[in-house]
């Protein structure tokens, strides 16, 4: 799957083919076709891997004893670590950004997914008295998600994989410092 992820990072999904994957990966076309019926099934496998990786991160965060604000920090940093360390996760993020129409069964909407995670942590933090009073939690949540997605785009554009964890952690830490009670 790693070779398929590297291929889909290099080639837009709309231009991808199993033949192209075979040619760029030194894997025979027969082996590629045996593993994946079509590019959609390759993309589905990549998206499945990313979903499992992010669910594992979310489960670890939710089992932790940290405050909701600490869970936000950990979530952003852990996502950055996945981007830095796992080419399959990178490919899935790209698929979600550029090819959501190709996977209608998935209803890919990274913004909505992250807004939900962030919004829940912010609501918990507000309930625990950890936030300044009078904050627009929806607006703060959208600011955090937009910052994270902007950093993700910068990382993709410039191949700054090794900076992903630190940049995402710094962004969430900065916003938290502004909203903390």
Descriptive report:
The chain is mainly α and 181 residues long. 75% of the residues lie in helices and 0% in strands. The protein has 9 helices and no strands.
Mean pLDDT: 93
Low-pLDDT windows of residues: none
Q: The biggest beta sheet, please?
A: none
Total strands: the figure is 0
Structural class: mainly alpha
**Looking at the structure, what is the overall shape?**
elongated
Rg for CA atoms: 18 Å
Percent of residues in β-strands: under 5%
Output the number of helix runs: 9
N-to-C series of helices and strands: HHHHHHHHH
Distance between the termini: 45 Å
Fraction of residues in helix: over 70%
Descriptive key words:
181 residues; mainly alpha; 75% helix
Protein topology:
Layout: H1 2-10, H2 18-25, H3 29-35, H4 39-63, H5 68-85, H6 87-98, H7 110-127, H8 137-158, H9 164-179
Short description:
75% of the residues lie in helices and 0% in strands.
């Amino acid at each position: 799957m790693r070779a398929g992820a590297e291929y889909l990072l290099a080639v837009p999904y709309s231009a991808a083919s199993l033949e192209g994957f075979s040619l760029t990966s030194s894997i025979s076309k027969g082996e590629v076709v045996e593993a994946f019926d079509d590019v959609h099934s390759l993309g589905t496998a990549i998206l499945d891997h990313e979903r499992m990786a992010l669910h594992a991160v979310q489960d670890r965060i939710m089992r932790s004893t940290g405050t909701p604000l600490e869970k936000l920090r950990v979530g952003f940093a852990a996502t950055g670590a996945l981007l830095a360390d796992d080419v399959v996760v990178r490919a899935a993020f790209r698929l979600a950004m550029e090819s959501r129409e190709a996977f209608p069964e998935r209803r890919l909407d990274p913004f909505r997914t992250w807004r939900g995670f962030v919004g829940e942590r912010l609501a918990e933090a507000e309930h625990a008295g950890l936030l300044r009073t009078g904050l627009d939690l929806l607006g703060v949540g959208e600011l955090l998600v937009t910052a994270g997605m902007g950093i993700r785009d910068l990382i993709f554009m410039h191949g700054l994989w090794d900076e992903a964890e630190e940049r995402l952690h710094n962004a969430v830490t900065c916003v938290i410092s502004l909203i903390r009670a």
